[in-house]
From TrEMBL:
GO molecular function annotations of the record: flavin adenine dinucleotide binding; pyranose dehydrogenase (acceptor) activity
Flavoprotein recorded as keyword: yes
Protein name as annotated: pyranose dehydrogenase (acceptor)
EC identifiers of the protein: 1.1.99.29
UniProt-listed InterPro entries: FAD/NAD-bd_sf, GMC_OxRdtase, GMC_OxRdtase_N, GMC_OxRtase_C
Lineage, highest ranks first: Eukaryota, Fungi, Dikarya, Basidiomycota, Agaricomycotina
Principal localisation: secreted
Signal peptide range: 1-19
Alphabetical list of SUPFAM superfamilies matching this protein: FAD-linked reductases, C-terminal domain, FAD/NAD(P)-binding domain
Length: 589
């Protein structure tokens, strides 16, 4: 990409976070705070904002990565392609263990590294989840506070729904339900205004008698149907937890954020009491400790929070001993129950002219200059504008004799995004891509320690396509995509299949293709799952406190007892908003 244009972008002045941010441990002047938040990502910065609203409360956030807000790659929607590749910046660059269901392959699991966490590098899709999803949380935890109706005020509290930069209010008419959204929250949400040439065709095909689907607001309690993707984008710029919850609070002397610093473990100061954290600026840097008068809150993500619990001796005794970690508190489910959604891309040749931001440098430069001028144009593009959500037929043999893996009748079994991938195509071949995803898989993986070194990456097993039902649902998703592509309304626009090639026809060979080409989304959950008080399942109670421990709480997607139906960033915001109120209530703040 043209380097002079990066300089041009900086000349317009991206706003750098204004809160008290320390680049290293040596700059911190004290070692005791009311709350210590381990991780400055999706949930961590929500907690930092809400807990520091009380000027009498001293809050410290410790983030392993650095700033993200002043980088064009994190601000311009299209440029997230630079962030999701293997070995990209703002990632931990985690590689999974060999995946049994993927023919022994290892794959990249992208997770955020830096302020904003995954919200600073994800695909920006905004999907809350269905009524069924949250009501299932309430059922599992025995706490109605996690039900959809109870969480809905938090959903609206987070959100500031806005019109896209290039379209007026008429564009969103029929594409969203205002009653399902918030308009005063810190986080900007919008429907992207750059329409794909395939959008109208997809809607027409799915409305036909063969599919009989309707356009819906995917964030209005149920997402079944066709919906226009809502994104964490406002004014043509990515909205992350860093830009929305941290940057605006630049006058709070009671909030401190130290970056480039990794929490290495939580220390038991007396039996059953964990309120001290050990940290270091790097593997060879000296360890320092900080103490919370009230609570330590782990918000390091599905992998990071599980790893920290295990490094702190909170886990399964024999498994910890195997890597040289002394048990401090028996909690055998730490790191277990990981759930994530496998995703596979199929593609077909398209009969249309193509303009690629990747392959055409002149077009890229012109589009970037346009974005720099008024935040409009192709740089606001995301890979697909439409998503369709499907359930298996009621009489499906796949569900015969087994429990439905979905949370309920308003929740899909699989998703599909159909797009021309025009701006994202790196070659000259016009392409139609179908991104297929199992919504709520039943396969379960884990996070385990590779060693007792906190700077050593843990073992991450996503367990993709281990269970046959997940594989069969993904195969059904492919059949649905193929039926759309081969629909008479698509004739002349969609041509031969490109991947897998046309000669791959039988189901067994399609499955082999899926096992070879499935990738990971950043949607994992469940490694410190919520469960009822008194239950031996899970890791935390419905109040998000680690069971049997004082002073330690977990607030991130690791506490989700089951996977939500798609992207989980919205649910983490809702979780963190309610968690903030739970904490405030407990400490009378």
């Amino acid at each position: 990409m043209a380097s002079f244009l990066w300089i041009l972008l900086f000349s317009v002045g991206f706003r750098i976070a204004g809160a008290k941010i320390y680049d290293s441990l040596s700059e911190l002047e004290k070692s005791q705070f009311d709350f210590i938040i381990c991780g400055g990502g999706n949930a961590g910065l929500v907690l930092a904002n809400r807990l520091s609203e009380n000027p009498a409360v001293q809050v410290l956030v410790i983030e392993a990565g650095g700033r993200t807000q002043d980088d064009p790659d994190t601000q311009i929607p299209f440029l997230d392609i630079n962030l999701l590749a293997d070995r990209a910046k703002y990632q931990w660059n985690t590689t999974t263990t060999p995946q049994k269901g993927l023919l022994g392959k290892t794959i990249n699991y992208p997770r955020g590294f830096g302020l904003g966490g995954s919200t600073a590098h994800n695909g920006m899709i905004w999907i809350k989840g269905s009524v069924d999803d949250y009501d299932n949380w309430a059922k599992v935890t025995g706490d109605d506070g996690w039900s959809y109706n109870a969480l809905e005020p938090y959903m609206k509290k987070v959100e500031r729904f806005t019109n896209p930069t290039e379209k007026g209010p008429d564009f969103v008419n029929g594409k969203f339900n205002p009653q399902a959204h918030g308009f005063q929250g810190p986080l900007g949400i919008s429907i992207i205004g750059n329409e794909d040439r395939i959008d109208d065709l997809v809607v027409e095909v799915l409305k036909s008698k063969e599919f009989n689907m309707s356009v819906v607001d995917g964030n209005d309690k149920s997402s079944l149907g066709i919906w226009w993707i809502q994104s964490s984008v406002s004014g043509g710029t990515r909205s992350s937890s860093a830009t929305s919850y941290l940057d605006p609070i630049d006058c709070r002397p009671n909030l401190s954020v130290v970056i480039n610093t990794q929490v290495t473990r939580v220390i038991q100061t007396k039996k059953g009491d964990f309120r001290t954290v050990e940290v270091a600026g790097g593997p060879k840097e000296p360890r320092q400790t900080f103490t919370a008068c009230k609570e330590v809150i782990l918000s390091a993500g599905v992998v990071g929070s599980a790893q920290l619990l295990l490094l702190s001796g909170i886990g399964h005794k024999q498994e910890l001993a195997a890597v040289g970690v002394k048990l401090t508190h028996e909690s055998p489910n730490v790191g277990k129950g990981l759930s994530n959604q496998p995703q596979t891309l199929f593609s077909w040749e398209g009969n249309f002219t193509m303009n690629s931001l990747i392959a055409n440098q002149t077009f890229f430069d012109e589009s970037l200059a346009r974005w720099n001028k008024n935040h409009t144009g192709p740089m606001n593009t995301v890979p697909a504008n439409l998503v369709s959500a499907f359930r298996l037929p009621e009489n499906s043999t796949l569900l015969k004799g087994i429990e439905d893996p979905s949370a309920g009748p308003r929740t899909p079994h699989y998703y599909m995004g159909l797009a021309t991938t025009e701006y994202f195509n790196s070659g000259s071949q016009p392409t139609i891509g179908a991104v297929l995803q199992v919504s709520e898989p039943i396969s379960r993986g884990s996070v385990t320690l590779n060693s007792n070194d906190p700077f050593d990456q843990p073992n991450v097993d996503l367990a993709f396509l281990v269970e046959d039902l997940d594989t069969q649902i993904l195969l059904q998703a492919y059949r649905t995509a193929k039926a759309q592509i081969e629909h008479p309304l698509m004739k002349g626009f969609a041509l031969d299949r490109l991947s897998p090639p046309p000669e791959v026809q039988i189901d067994d060979d399609i499955i082999i293709y899926m096992r070879n080409n499935t990738i990971a989304t950043s949607h994992a959950v469940g490694t410190a799952a919520m469960s009822r008080n008194g239950s031996h399942d899970g890791v935390v109670g419905p109040d998000l406190k680690v069971k049997g421990i004082n002073g330690l709480r977990v607030v991130d997607a690791s506490v989700f007892p089951v996977n939500l139906q798609m992207n989980n960033q919205a649910a983490v915001y809702h979780l963190a908003e309610r968690a903030s109120d739970l904490i405030k209530h407990e400490w009378h703040l």
